[in-house]
Amino acid sequence: MQAFLKTGKISNADKPSSSGVKPSKKKPPAPWVEKYRPKTIDDIVDQGEVIQVLRECLAGGDLPHLLFYGPPGTGKTSAILAAARQLFGDITRDRVLELNASDERGIQVIRDKVKTFAQMTVSSIRPDGRPCPPYKLVILDEADSMTNAAQAALRRTMERETRTTRFCLICNYVSRIIPPITSRCSKFRFKPLARENVIKRLQDVCEAEGVDVGTGEVLHQAVDTCEGDMRRALTALQCCQRLLGKITSEGLIEVTGLVPDHLINEFLSIKNYNELEKFVENFLMEAYSASQLLEQLSATVVSSGHLTNKQKCVISEKVAICSHRLLDGGAEVMQLTDLGCTIIMANNNP
Amino acid sequence: MSLWVDKHRPKDLMKLDYHKDQATRLKSLVQQSDFPHLLVYGPSGAGKKTRIMCLLRELYGSGAERLRQETMHFTTPSNKKIEIMTVSSNYHIEVNPTDVGIHDRVVIMDLVKNVAQTHQIDSSGQREFKVVILNEVDDLTKDAQHALRRTMEKYVTTCRLILIANSISRVIPAIRSRCLTIRVPAPTETEITNVLQAVCKKEGLSLPSELGARIAKCADRNLRRALLMCEACKAQQYPFTSDQKVPEPDWQTFIRSTAALILSEQSPKKLGEVRQKLYELIIHGVPPDMIFAGLLRELVQNCDMVMKCQVASYAAQYEHRMRLGNKPIFHIEAFVAKFMAIYKKFVEESLM
Amino acid sequence: MSDYPDPEEEYELMYADDLELLREMDDDNDTNPVRKKTNPAKRSLDFSGPIAAKSSSLIPNNATDNNQNPNNSLSLSQSLQPLEDLLTQENTSNGGEDILTQINENLSNKRTAEDLFGDINDIDFDNLELPSKRQKTDEENDMDLINKILEGRKIRQMLAEPSKGYIDKKPNFDVKDNLTRNIPRSPKAAVASSNKFPGREYGYPATDRSPEPRLLSSREHREQLEAKNQQKESNELVQETTTNDSETTDSEMSDLWVERYRPKSYIDLLSEEPVNRALLHWLHLWDKAVFKKDVKTKEPQHRNTFSKRTGQFQLSNKWKGKKENEPEVDEDGRPHHKVALLCGPPGVGKTTLAHLLARLAVSLIVTVGSITSARLAARLSIVAKCEKLRINPRVLSALAARAQGDIRAALHVLSFLKARAKAQVNIEDVENASIGTKDNAKSIMQALQALFTVTDTDPNAILKTIQAAGEYDRLIDGIFENYLTVRSDSRLLIASETMSWLRLYDTINSWILRHQNYSLYSMLPICVARCHSILATRQPVKLRFPIQGQEMFRKKTELDSIVWSVWRGSTASVATTRSALRLDILPLLPYLLSPVLRSANIQLCSETERKSLATCAGAMCDYGLQYIQQRTPEGLYAFVLEPDVYKVAFFGNEDCVRPPPAVRQAIAREQQLEVIRRNDEMMSRMSSRSKSSQAATSKPKLDTKDTAAREVKEMRIPNHLQRLQPKAVQKITPQVQKDFFGRIVPVAQVQKQDAVSDVISSSSVFYQYREGFNNAVRRNVRMRDLF
């Protein structure tokens, strides 16, 4: 039965409307993130030097092993995908192997899949006769989530197959990549995007989608809430548009799961334990996320005007501890109570 | 004749009792051409599941309400056979992947793949996707969550996921960013009271407003519990009186009595008695973090501010350790022992 | 709890890698043939002559040489010692004896099989098969032997458990012939039947003869018999005469029971049959290399045929980790695995089994499972009989259970009890016997005792004790259960300090298990040792053995299973998460299940009461609960709720809300009605649906019916059925489809079939239907099962 269904599925995917039963099936609208992904490296926003280097590499037709790192949503994946497309054109599919963290990437995959792919030799001529670079590209997205064993297995492959294969590793934290690999790659740091560039790009997208954003105030807010992460900003905008049919600041807060500012300020100004208990219960009943609160709290505390340096230190330290515990799966109510106690003590002894 | 909590569950988005704005938004979402993956989160008893069932009905019509239970079988890579209960209609399937513990990844991948590969033949007027509902996503292993994220992208044409979580703190950002997140806050006490009144009216009963308020207060903003309590009140005594006893889950009473035991005397002997009580709680399946929270709430009531902070900090620390460990009883008892030590010192000092 | 694999799963997970490794090792073996070509034994055993006669008959009665051998059961291993040096040695030292040459001549291929089985004469083939077997090929003989052994063994088991009635069913079966000589030189039997049975016989009650007289063995008598018995095995024992000459004759009585009752033949083995068989087979594979005779190795695909034929074991010669299609013998005719490694807890019979093997080699891993205590008890009873120890079978089984599968320990206890000169052994004796339990269990308690006692001598001693005890988990549990009582601790400072170390231990241990990283393992004993420095005292303390944790685990499992069954039993419409069920619904459900009724008779109930009763019944249906009539010890019938949610909902005071028996009965009745009602409803829903489709096809004139049909259509089938109908209109013939019972088949099914066939013809898209309300039991039937 299962095989029966599977064959049905495959043929269906290939020719979606062969049967009269189904009217022409429209593709589901692509996420804006994919739809408006930069097509060439020149479209990449705000990463001057990196793009400069890439462009030279492309012009020479040669590419070193690459290691892109930087905060999320700064264009790392977009850059390498665009570069690959420019390098290989329509044979990109055959020449590029892209693996990200959600694929199986244990040592076994590195050994089997990546190695076999890397070992294949490719010609320097395309099927249509035009020249192309005589190598393949392996893109390992989110490489910092690979195990050390897998990385170690990779390093041998990288070295041996240089002739036919280039690797591009993409990660947020370069420190999570083992040194033997970083030393084999040219490292490129992607800076957080400049605010005006993000806003400009968002505006472009909104225009193309026919979404009314008014004066653009909400776009500023979107950038603020997403801390310069272009992908998050775009996703948030799209979700908001979907859910509300328009883009408003409340909608943005709702879809991004942000904690409203007034709650953060309330938390920061708690003076006694009963208040705290009530606040915590209410906060959780409203289904806000404690880790989100901590994230926003940390920013608020640092920039807060009415807290002394000592208070800031004490609170920030506790915020760090509590968010670590939350990451380990600690109960939200406990951690918030604990943090709240620290805040009370700090408030009472400035 | 079912329980009120089942019988009076709203079936239509527009008939929901609270969060009406959200309901409207959900309805408009259904009417759009595209339907995203959803991540619905909120505390227990807030009505997440009710909303999702309404949403399904809105998507597929009442066919989505014809449910059946089935057991599905999976095989792990290590060739272990696992089985899991599913509830499904023609249009959706619902599972609790956490039931299979560390093998949740296999279940998620196989199940979604399975569903995604069976197409609707005829999509005229119907949705061209099926819906997979995953419960308790926040308790999934990290492994499973990563698998989920890939699955979401891969099978987006033929299936949509609706994820249910109590809190999104423990859902990885990658999943959050791929879903439309829908926050379902718990109903306020007023909202609960209103619902109780409405249900009693439908049942032809009259509920004194005071009793309604008391039930709502006892229910910890959990509508499911409130309705059950209300019906239990009715079963015990009708006509209602405004001062009648509201039955509440015995484990809550038991935690309170345990806390009282701790406060009554601080000695190793008492600690031994407390241990038996803690064991009882664990045996009855009360989640250890709820035991911690319940104890903390009761224990700090007689303390001064400094001590409250101290106790709360220990509770947070020990609870965190408990998550990393394997034997909850050690950590809870350690907390109790610590509290007893602090409390005894506090009492002795205040007597001097 | 379930965050990471339990040990078994971990093993599974790791196993794949191991397998791979193992295979790689095998491959290595293939490519590098081991140079063991010149096996010293081969030369000396290289005889081609047929067996002239049994060697035993040719050997002179040199009882005086042999009978003092305390452990003649070991003879097998000795017979398979490298024979070359042995023989030369014997030739020089015992040159005068002609045994040796006889042995040399008589050692034949046949002998190996006998070696393997120990003394196979104890099986009844001398009057069944012995004459013909000489003509058979060796392989056939081997197979026959194995079969016979199995048979003999089976019979013996039957004898040990006479309740099976095996003997009754086989009236012609001569029990005596099948007895084996495992125990004891029981003098009379041996004398009486030494011609018929080569020496070995059980003094076992099932042989109709009263065992008592036989057991009155005088020492001289016994010695004589010993001598005779030894004769039979002298081919084996002769080698020992050189080594064990120094033994005195009176050592015979002082030998340990463990030695005396050691299994002496294959069928005496208590260990798992497949394991024995596997080893035997493996040993047999050496025949070619050793005896230069062809070994019939089974082709990989036929390997299991033997086991099928006997119907006894599945495992026959599948070693763990052995590749499926690997030939069993390498190109030199030697088995692939050169080495067999037996492992298992003490006293399960490793040594004994090993003594049935030559020391030809070792690297297969065979785990020997524990002896079941029933088998152990049966054996113990035989021993007791022979030793004139009167002992209740119940006591024996207690002893067997206590020994935890360690027959050696059990025999020691028995011997000890006998030495205390008690003719009657009762259960207390067994319980109180401090000896005989496995040493590890004792050392946990010892280590615990040490933990709670101050040591002045060596500060590191405690750490050593802990490490020696192993099982840190048990130690930690022991500390946890005892720490509150050992020291006076009014301020609870010690308690908090101890608990902090226990917490640390738990965290580290979980981390190790979760990450499978043992680098922190050495920290664990240090945590335990720290507890010692906090808790140790000079006063003698009375410690409890840690059982609380296990007890709690058991109870938790019980309650979990109740929740689980409610969860599984609840209908789909009320399905919810288990935590909600456990925390919200189940705790409050009992209140709803006890409606207040003035009288038990439902006819006399008021309307509201009846309504609440109906609600209760409905709830029970929804959550799969049921009152089941059960007989109480007093002989009355009581209604018991199944699954018992009260246990989960309440903490010990559940009885206050349980409804009185009369109400329970009313509920049970009402629930049965409710079940019927629901079934009816479902049936009517189905038939109304079929009616509605009829309406659609045949266009009835009646307006009422039309509207009804439309209503139903709107209510029930707004989805795919609607869409399918237009197609069905052309297809379906108007008549109603009926099933076997004459019921109307729901149109959904009929249409579904049509739709599917239609789709198959027109497109390649298939729809997986899981619809329909069929009461038939659905199960998968394979095509090949139908042929």
UniProtKB/TrEMBL annotation, chain A:
Gene3D superfamilies, A to Z: 1.10.8.60, 1.20.272.10, P-loop containing nucleotide triphosphate hydrolases
A matching Pfam family: AAA
Region feature Disordered, mapped onto this chain: 1-32
Record-linked InterPro entries: AAA+_ATPase (IPR003593), ATPase_AAA_core (IPR003959), DNA_pol3_clamp-load_cplx_C (IPR008921), DNA_Rep/Repair_Clamp_Loader (IPR050238), P-loop_NTPase (IPR027417), Rep_factorC_C (IPR013748), RFC_lid (IPR047854)
Segments crossing the lipid bilayer: none
Alphabetical UniProt keywords: ATP-binding, DNA replication, Nucleotide-binding, Nucleus
One of the GO biological process terms: DNA repair
AAA+ ATPase domain mapped to chain residues: 62-196
Subcellular location: Nucleus
Single GO MF annotation: DNA binding
SMART domains: AAA
Coiled coil: none
GO CC annotations, alphabetized: DNA replication factor C complex; nucleus
Similarity section: Belongs to the activator 1 small subunits family.
Protein name: Jg6223 protein
Natural source organism: Pararge aegeria aegeria
From TrEMBL, chain B:
Principal localisation: nucleus
Molecular-function GO term, any one: DNA binding
Compartments in which it is found: Nucleus
Keyword match Chloroplast: no
Cellular-component GO terms for this entry: DNA replication factor C complex; nucleus
UniProt-listed InterPro entries: AAA+_ATPase (IPR003593), DNA_pol3_clamp-load_cplx_C (IPR008921), DNA_Rep/Repair_Clamp_Loader (IPR050238), P-loop_NTPase (IPR027417)
Residue intervals of the AAA+ ATPase domain: 34-190
Coiled-coil boundaries: none
Record's keyword annotation contains Nucleus: yes
Gene Ontology BP terms: DNA repair; DNA strand elongation involved in DNA replication
Swiss-Prot/TrEMBL keywords: DNA replication, Nucleus
Domain of life of the organism encoding this protein: Eukaryota
Function noted in UniProt: Subunit of the replication factor C (RFC) complex which acts during elongation of primed DNA templates by DNA polymerases delta and epsilon, and is necessary for ATP-dependent loading of proliferating cell nuclear antigen (PCNA) onto primed DNA.
Complex and partners: Subunit of the RFC complex, an heteropentameric complex consisting of a large subunit RFC1 and four small subunits RFC2, RFC3, RFC4 and RFC5; the RFC complex interacts with PCNA. Forms an heterotetrameric complex with RFC2, RFC4 and RFC5; this complex has ATPase activity but is not stimulated by PCNA. The heterotetramer of subunits RFC2, RFC3, RFC4 and RFC5 interacts with RAD17. Interacts with CNTD1; this interaction facilitates crossover formation.
Entry's family note: Belongs to the activator 1 small subunits family.
Official protein name in the record: Replication factor C subunit 3
Automatic annotation (TrEMBL), chain C:
Protein name: Jg18076 protein
Gene Ontology cellular-component terms listed: nucleus
Compositional bias ranges of the Acidic residues kind: 21-30
CDD domains: HLD_clamp_RFC
InterPro entries assigned to the protein according to its UniProt record, in alphabetical order: ATPase_AAA_core, CTF18-RFC_complex, P-loop_NTPase, RFC_lid
Disordered: annotated segments: 21-76, 162-252, 300-333, 682-705
Compartments it resides in: Nucleus
Bias (Polar residues): 303-317
SUPFAM superfamilies: P-loop containing nucleoside triphosphate hydrolases
Domain ATPase AAA-type core: 341-457
Pfam family, one: AAA
ATP-binding listed as a keyword: yes
Gene Ontology MF annotations: ATP binding; ATP hydrolysis activity; DNA binding
Entry annotated with the keyword Nucleus: yes
Signal peptide: none
Keywords: ATP-binding, Cell cycle, DNA replication, DNA-binding, Nucleotide-binding, Nucleus
Predominant localisation class: nucleus
GO BP annotations listed: DNA replication
Gene: jg18076
Biased composition range(s): Low complexity: 61-76, 684-693
